Amino acid sequence: NSNIMSRLDWVTVMLWLVMMVMGWLNIYAAVYNENHTSIFDLSQRYGKQLMFIIAALVLAVFVMVTDNKLWFFFAWFIYGFFLLLLVLVLLLGKEVNGARAWFDFGAFGLQPSEFAKFATGLALASYLNSQRQSYNTRTMVAATAIILSPALLIAVQPDMGSVITYFAFFIVLYREGMSIWVFITAILAAVLFLLTLMLGNLPVAIGLLVVAAIALIVTSGYMVTLKAAGVMAVAGIVAYLTGQYVLDLDLVLIIVIAVFLSGIVYAWYIYRQKMKNQAVIYIFLLCGLLYLFAVDYAFHNVLKPHQQTRINIMLGMEADPYGEGYNLNQSLISIGSGGFTGKGYLNGTQTKFKFVPEQSTDFIFCTVGEEWGFIGSTVVIGLFVWLLLRLLMMAERQRSTFVRAYGYGVFGLFLVHFFVNIGMTIGVMPVIGIPLPFFSYGGSSLWGFTILLFVFLRLDAGRTEYLG
Fold first, then answer.
1. Residues 456, 394: contact at Cβ < 8 Å?
2. In whole angstroms, what is the distance from residue 325 CA to residue 349 CA?
3. Residue 448: pLDDT band by 50, 70, 90 thresholds?
4. E strand or H helix at 96, and its extent?
5. How far is CA 298 from CA 185, 193, 276, 308, in A?
């Protein structure tokens, strides 16, 4: 259709093509084999990546010739189909690096979690479109369930890197009316998480008590604060004696129990005096203390030792250059050795001698940094920023809630993958293992991102057609 082609965002298409070619060239450099110098050698990863690129071109054309109504009316069917695949892969899939996340087809594998992202985006957009006149708490809870259902199935595999990317869809909920306080709460939770790991839960718990006391003084005065402190002190003595000498509980848990017990008494006083501010402060304090205890417990009892080590390394609390920190250490050496202009294409010593594990997949940016240097790295980052800005612009010009919501989902997924992947190679994010879109080796990743992007491009090209 000539009208569709004329309205297609060709700038974004060119960005996609350029990044795929750059990714292919970097994969060739990352796994270069002197015995197989042809970049078209299908026995090597770079040859296979070329086949993946050709298949991606076919997928892009296929998506562009479909009718927009296909994605609108079959959104839930597509979502259900990929949820089924996520269940089947747990039963029939092949285990790779400790995760049962792949269907094995001989020389190739297919990872359904990469395709479930676009399916989740469609289902979420369809649901929000149907509820656009009545966004409320029930709507947001249901939307959250749509997001977390595939994420939980992926967590069972387990593939925690992919799970994290699904939180990108909360950007969609914020754009469509979710309260800003949800994001503020998430930021506070992240800050408390880091402080708990770096300082320990007891100092942070004391800090929360001090903050609550200051807030109470500011909003209610000294007398109310003293009454609250007195009630809490009595409850604290009871909780401490019981927890320390009878139940042998953790000190932070004792504080949580003390706050809870004092809250039962203090809630009656707050109710009688109709003090809403004090109620909010108390709820903040109790939830914060419960969260601290949960973080401490989860870190030491849920996360595996190597995951704990990776987080500690990222926070600078532990050095393990020959163990769990090896990947990050070699990544930093590789990127740093590139200097301003890089060592030149195919001249990366860290790359040639394979010091960086997974350098053609999760750590592909190391090859960019070493061989292309600061200039090349800036170009790659600039391309991603340009793509993200294009996606935002396209999302905001939509008439349909369905297309706008899906567009923000696409934007969020690319943003999280870009930020986390490059962040982990330079040490500002923990090593969790997610691909860099269009650069990392792999058919599932490339095809998944291509479908994700081109469904949005097709919907945008038909933006004059209102999808109600």
1. yes
2. 20
3. very high
4. strand 94-96
5. 19, 11, 32, 10
Q: Residue 415: CA atoms inside 13 Å, Cβ hemisphere, count?
A: 18
| CA distance to 343, 424, 425, per residue, from 340 (Å) | 9, 21, 17
CA–CA distance, 165 with 143 (Å, rounded to integer)? 16
Tell me the three-class secondary structure of 198-212, residue by residue: HHCHHHHHHHHHHHH
Average of per-residue pLDDT across 150-163: 85
94, 103 contact by CB (below 8 A): yes
Between the CA of residue 238 and those of 48, 254, 290, 327, what are the distances in Å? 67, 10, 19, 49
Answer whether residue 462 shows pLDDT above 80.
Answer: yes
Q: Which residues, in sequence order, are CB contacts of 360 under 8 Å at separation 6+?
A: 27, 30, 31, 45, 367, 440, 441
Report how far residue 310's alpha carbon sits from residue 331's, in angstroms, rounded to the nearest whole number: 14
Distance between CA atoms of residues 356 and 363, nearest Å: 8
Map tokens 């870190």 to a residue.
Answer: 299
CB 377 within 8 A of CB 342: no
Close Cβ partners of 47 (under 8 Å, ≥ 6 residues apart): 38, 39, 40, 41
Q: What is the pLDDT of residue 304?
A: 72
**Residue 268 pLDDT grade (very low, low, confident, very high; cuts 50, 70, 90):** low
Q: Which residues contact 319 (CB under 8 A, 6 or more apart)?
A: 313, 325
Q: SS in 3 state form for 117-182?
A: HHHHHHHHHHHHHHCCCCCCHHHHHHHHHHHHHHHHHHHHCCCHHHHHHHHHHHHHHHHCCCCHHH
